[in-house]
Amino acid sequence: MNDSTPQANRPTARRRWLLLLVLLPLALGAIAVAILGFSEYRSARAVTAEIARLQAVGEPVDNETMARWFQANTSQAGTAAWREIFVAVEHVSSGEAVGSFPFLGTGELPADLVPGGDWPDEPRIAEFLQEVRPLIVQIEQAAQYPTPVWQPIVFDSFSTLLPEIQSSRSVIRLLQLDVQHALYHRDTERAVRGFASMQATAAAFEWDFCLVAELVSIALRGVHRDAIRRSLANTSWEPGQLDQLLGQVADPRDVATCWQRTLAGERAMLLGLLRGSPEKRDAVLHQERVSFPEIWLLIPSITQRYLDCMAAVQQIGADGVLGMTARAKTLEQENDRSKKGPFGDILINLFLPAVSAFAHANERDELDRRLTRTALGIKRYHVSEGRWPAKLSDLAAVGLQACDWTALQAGPFGYRVEPEGVVVWAYDAHDPVSPGRIRNEPPDEEELATNTSLWHVTRIR
């Protein structure tokens, strides 16, 4: 009997080992789930606390607060006037006749157009501009209203429609045509009014609550300044008129504030999406061509990672425009190397703006303003002194400061006196030979003709 006892116990021992082998993974899995659950609970509390903090400091966190935030930071004084302008501009811009016009349509200005030169379409354009003169006057009068101007936007996260932004571009194009026509006829007073109206239009819709609106705002200012610089080649400006144009490009933007607000708006749109319906989230994921379930977007740790990242991105603009691109690239590299959570960085990968590209756009915007101011200063010096400045530091005589003729961190703009005038240039940030540095020579015509360089070049006569 004693010999049979160990044999009888062997099946029982085997069952215990089998049970242990089954229960151990289950126990470990339960522990892992508990740890993950606790981690997500902590992330959820952190997200709730961060949203409460944002609300406490007055930043938007969803569609409803975005609407109130937008209204609080805009003026309704010019709302009705600008809506009337938009309707009228859309009407005059949709006609078949304007389809061949430059700016408004697909037409182009004649090469090397000079005042009084050959412009076959000029009679038709003159007739059109005469017909829309009351509208142009209406746009000039709208400059009296405080900016930026409120419009009744229905905020719907990333599906928010911004038709006013497109309409503002149509207004700028109409003003471009009017300014070009005025310069052609040497009507500098009308041209100055047109430039002022372009500036007022850009200011009216400087909506820095999202990336799209901010980029369009940068583009509108660029069109205004580019038109001013082009006018310096063949226009005989009076000293007072040049002073007015210098005033239009005198003040740099508060990039630190605008950057912070734009990122705050982008964050609120994402939070609005997370608080919205599953159908909205599914639609966005379908648009982004991703296949994971929309419920993944609601995982607290993923939201916390996104909020932490956006807080760091907002700090890029705190020190102003100088060095923004470098700071943005550094942050992107650090984010790539940082430890990811168990669910990855879904929200960051899908919804974080192209930070370095946006920073570069802000740097180019300030570079463009400085170059325009420098070019105007050179023209103003020539009108006052009867000669071109020997060096850019001579522009102090007409009220410019060293920062005005400095290409951000690259030093003074390139400048050369030629037999028929002067040329001033900046740099091509994507130039493989000397990115971010001022060359000794301006780019040649072949480089400029490729339309692939980002040179800022102005010729003044």
Number of helices: 16
Mean pLDDT: 87
Overall geometry: elongated
Q: Compute the CA-based radius of gyration.
A: 30 Å
Oligomer: single chain
Distance between the termini: 120 Å
Give the class from helix and strand content and strand pairing: mainly alpha
If you had to describe this structure to a student in words, what would you say it looks like?
Strands 1-2-3 form a three-stranded antiparallel beta sheet, covered by helices on one side. It is built from 16 helices and three strands. The chain is mainly alpha-helical and 461 residues long. The longest helix is centred in the first third of the chain and has 53 residues, at 4-56.
In short:
The protein is mostly helical. It is built from 16 helices and three strands. The protein is elongated and about 110 Å long.
Descriptors:
461 residues; mainly alpha; three-stranded antiparallel beta sheet; 3 strands; 3% strand
List the helices and strands and how they pair.
Blueprint: H1 4-56, H2 63-72, H3 79-93, H4 122-131, H5 133-141, H6 163-184, H7 188-204, H8 211-231, H9 239-248, H10 255-275, H11 278-287, H12 300-314, H13 324-337, H14 346-351, H15 355-385, E1 414-418, E2 421-425, H16 445-449, E3 457-460
Helix pairs in contact: 1-12, 2-10, 3-6, 6-7, 6-8, 7-8, 7-9, 8-15, 9-15, 10-12, 13-15
